[in-house]
Every structure is written in C-alpha cells, then in structure tokens.
C-alpha cells in the first residue's frame, strides 16, 4: 500500500472518559494528512503534461485534472484498507466529530439495528444492505456487522 498523496497517518484507540461523549467504548480512529499532490508525486500524466507552461495549467486542469481527487483517493484507500470489523469514513476530522455528536456515529446518516436475536438482526441488516446498495445518493455504504450497525455517508 503506497499512497504518495498522504504525508502521514495517525491513529487512536479508545475514547474520552466523559459521560457526554457518544462514541462507542472502544473506537479506533485514523487520521491521514494529505499533501499537495505536486509535492508527493500524485500527479497524473495527461495530454498536456509534457508541453503546457505553468501559467496555463490552472486552465487545463478544469478540462482534464492532472491530480487524483479526494473522492478517488478515499475510494482507493477504502479498497486497500479493508479490515474486518472496521469501517472507513473519508470525512474531515471536525465534520466526523460533529456528526458523532449529532447522530452518535461518525457519518451524517446511519441505520442502527438493535434487538434481542442476533440472527434476526443479521437478516434485517442483509435486507437493508440490498435496499440501500442501489441508492445513488449514498457516497458509501459501510455495513458494520461486528458492532451490529450499518453506517452510510
């Protein structure tokens, strides 16, 4: 796994010991810092890469971008960083924290399935996954079976 657009990655486990924090008892978070793609080699070869002068690049980038977008980087990282029991959320840290305070999860929209029978909750989760996987407005669909919750952004 090599992402030249990422300067460094930090992580934390656990949560603050405060009764007002809605985070789960044992969350794991990662924070990656992206750099300017021109500094770390995230530049893509385009039809104008070899001949365009610097002053013309901002205009040509509107036609054909010469760097990977944030959405493309998050998608590539999600594909490479699949860890069972953990879900990735490509949001800015402050947005994730505000979402956590508002909804109890690190995404703006979520579906929590709770109940007494694990098998029934899993069946409802599979049905919800089928229904939600075709919704085009969802950026990502992240089922979290280990926590018995499903998160969407």
Entry keywords:
153 residues, alpha+beta, 3-stranded antiparallel sheet, two-stranded antiparallel sheet, 5 strands, elongated
Describe the structure.
By secondary structure, the chain is of the alpha+beta class. The protein has a domain at 1-81. The protein has helices at 37-40, 57-63, 70-80, 93-103, 118-132; strands at residues 6-13, 28-34, 109-112, 141-144, 149-152. β4 and β5 (149-152) form a beta hairpin. It is elongated, with a radius of gyration of 19 Å. The two termini are 24 Å apart. The mean pLDDT is 74.
Compact overview of the structure:
The chain is of the alpha+beta class and 153 residues long. Helix content is 31%, strand content 18%.
What's the mean pLDDT score?
74
The helix/strand series, from N terminus to C terminus, equals EEHHHHEHEE
Radius of gyration: 19 Å
Strand element count:
5
Structural class: alpha+beta
Helical coverage, percent range: 25-40%
How many separate helices? 5
Overall, the morphology is elongated
Low-pLDDT runs of 5+ residues are none
Describe the secondary structure blueprint for this structure.
Elements lengths: L5 E8 L14 E7 L2 H4 L16 H7 L6 H11 L12 H11 L5 E4 L5 H15 L8 E4 L4 E4 L1
Antiparallel strand pairs: 1-2, 3-5, 4-5
């Amino acid at each position: 796994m090599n992402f030249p657009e990422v300067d460094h990655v930090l992580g934390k486990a656990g949560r603050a010991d405060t009764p007002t924090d809605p985070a789960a008892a044992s969350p794991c978070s990662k924070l990656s810092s992206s750099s300017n793609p021109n500094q770390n080699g995230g530049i893509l070869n385009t039809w104008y890469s070899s001949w365009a002068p610097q002053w013309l690049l901002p205009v040509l980038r509107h036609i054909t971008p010469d760097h990977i977008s944030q959405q493309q980087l998050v998608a590539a990282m999600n594909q490479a960083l699949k860890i069972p029991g953990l879900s990735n959320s490509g949001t800015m840290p402050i947005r994730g924290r505000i979402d956590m305070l508002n909804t109890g999860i690190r995404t703006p929209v979520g579906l929590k399935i709770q109940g007494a029978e694990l098998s029934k909750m899993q069946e409802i989760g599979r049905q919800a996954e089928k229904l939600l996987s075709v919704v085009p407005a969802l950026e990502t669909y992240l089922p979290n079976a280990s926590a018995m919750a499903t998160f969407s952004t």
